[in-house]
Amino acid sequence: MDVPELLRRAACHVPAVATDEAGATVADANEYLDHDEWEVALDILVELGDAYRTETAYWDLLAEAARLMWLSQTERWCHWRRFEVVHGMVRADLQLVDPDVAGGRRTPIPGDGRLRPLWDIGDVTAAGEPDLYVARLWVEAQPDLRPGGRAVVRLAPLSPQRWRRLAAGDVITMHEQRPVAGTATVVESVLPIATSARRDRG
To answer: Are 73 and 18 found together in one domain?
Structure first.
């Protein structure tokens, strides 16, 4: 499939009444497609996908379109969102420790999900030590997180099922070595669609 076909197929997944933060709809995306404004149409569809609960096929189509347009950052975001559809979403307000403190970073955290730090989410080993888990980190609304900085981040755990008990207000810590590198307060925890449906049937 070429880019316009991929985007039109993705657009078919979006309810006509759905709007992004700017008020754009799928009709706007289709209008831009009619005028060969592929990148604008893709941006609208990505925003619409973030505004309501989508399926994996939607993000697959958008990721492939982004790949064909050489938009690597958008492609990475679409793969990230696909992961969240399958495994759920954890957003947290992360405060990094000062770079002069033990454990503090001296270089910025890349914002596009490449960093895979360890996290203490409250579990302990049989020996009573903190049981740390790996989770990739995506920084919202900025390209990176400066040393000692603060931002809302999204986490993609390698073992998502262990994180599903987290709720807004829970405090977790980030580690790159033994000392704490940052402290995060969970602001949103969303179960994957399939898990939510099972709970609703109860």
So the answer is: yes
